[in-house]
Amino acid sequence: MLILNLKLNAERSQLMDKKSTIFIATHGVMTKEVGVISGELELITTCDDNGVLTLAITYVGAKDLYTLPGEDYRLNAPSDHEVVHRMLATVLERP
What we know:
Blueprint: H1 2-13, E1 16-31, E2 35-48, E3 52-59, E4 66-67, E5 73-74, H2 81-92
């Protein structure tokens, strides 16, 4: 029974909540890999149940994902993921 519980807990910690928003970046968004990208972009954020947040951006319809600068993003509460995602999308879409 203990092994089963440990396995279930390990599986739960791997669960990821994923959010995606499409927007137009007229002034561009800085990425680690290629510098500034602009145009019709998609912000993709994921958050695991420990609050670890991953931020990525891509051109709409493209497969290549780029990372936003910074690292070790962690939310105090995974339930804040939706709000943080919407805030980031709004800031990145600024005119």
